[in-house]
From TrEMBL:
Transmembrane segments: none annotated. This is NAD(P)H-dependent oxidoreductase. Belongs to the nitroreductase family. Keywords: Flavoprotein, FMN, NADP, Oxidoreductase. The keyword Cell membrane does not apply. InterPro entries: NfsB-like, Nitroreductase, Nitroreductase-like. The keyword Oxidoreductase applies. The lineage of its organism: Bacteria, Pseudomonadati, Bacteroidota, Flavobacteriia, Flavobacteriales. Its cofactor is FMN. Residues 10-184 form the Nitroreductase domain.
Length: 212
């Protein structure tokens, strides 16, 4: 759909309920979606999340009941679990600054002002606030995934219908300073999934936008 109008791509996409288990997403196409996630914008560029890309059938079988038995968990080619990083401390910020120094060939001293700003605005916040903030950033990456997948004609179901604490337990996330924010399944729609033909239900422009 590369030459198709972008809005038509967005109309083509829908939250897929029934995936075709016989159509497997190729590794190279998965990589494109992961790159779209990697390129997502985030507050201060801190990308305070990690995405688990789950192919393993056994793991998905364990997660399935924790996602209210939604069939997408098992039937899609991949399950993506967007986790928020729950330990956002000075060491985390230092790693980010090192990345900027290396990527842009800069001097660390030139970034000390920026470091102070992020220390005050983000790092000094409570762990609870930081985790909530990190989850919001993960949702931006999810949005990017949805748009990129529509562009490449790959199907996704974004999902909040799961128990985050069970996901955290099953994936051992607490020990890794991670907490499940949101999940998505990726693959190809089954031709029998009737929702692909349904008209989009959306608010009118008048309701959704206030122009001042
Ligand atoms: C954050 C989020 C969570 C969602 N959770 C689920 C879910 O658990 N299961 C599901 O089948 N659909 C889920 N959906 C899909 C929405 O119901 C769907 O996006 C919405 O009804 C609009 O329809 P469309 O995406 O097909 O255009 C979720 C969507 C979003 C963005």
């Amino acid at each position: 759909m590369t030459n198709v109008d972008y809005l038509d791509q967005l109309k083509w996409r829908y939250a897929t309920k029934k995936f075709d288990t016989n159509k497997e997403l190729a590794e190279k196409d998965l990589e494109k979606l992961l790159e779209a996630i990697r390129l997502s914008a985030s507050s201060y560029g801190l990308q305070p999340y990690e995405v688990y890309v789950i192919k393993d059938e056994e793991t998905r079988k364990k997660l399935h009941p924790a996602a209210f038995q939604q069939p997408q968990i098992l039937d899609a080619s991949y399950l993506l679990v967007f986790t928020a990083i729950t330990k956002i401390d000075e060491a985390y910020l230092n790693d980010y600054i090192d990345n900027i120094v290396e990527t842009r060939n800069m001097k660390k001293e030139d970034l000390s002002g920026m470091k102070d700003i992020i220390m005050n605005a983000v790092i000094s916040q409570s762990d609870e606030n930081k985790t909530e903030w990190a989850k919001k950033q993960a949702y931006i990456a999810l949005g990017n995934l949805l748009s990129a997948a529509a562009h490449y004609q790959i199907d996704v179901c974004p999902m909040e219908g799961f128990d985050p604490s069970q996901f955290d337990d099953i994936l051992g996330l607490n020990q890794k300073n991670r907490a499940t924010a949101v999940i998505a399944t990726v693959g190809f729609r089954h031709k029998d999934d009737g929702l692909q033909h349904a008209d989009k239900v959306r608010k009118s422009k008048e309701e959704l936008f206030t122009r001042i």
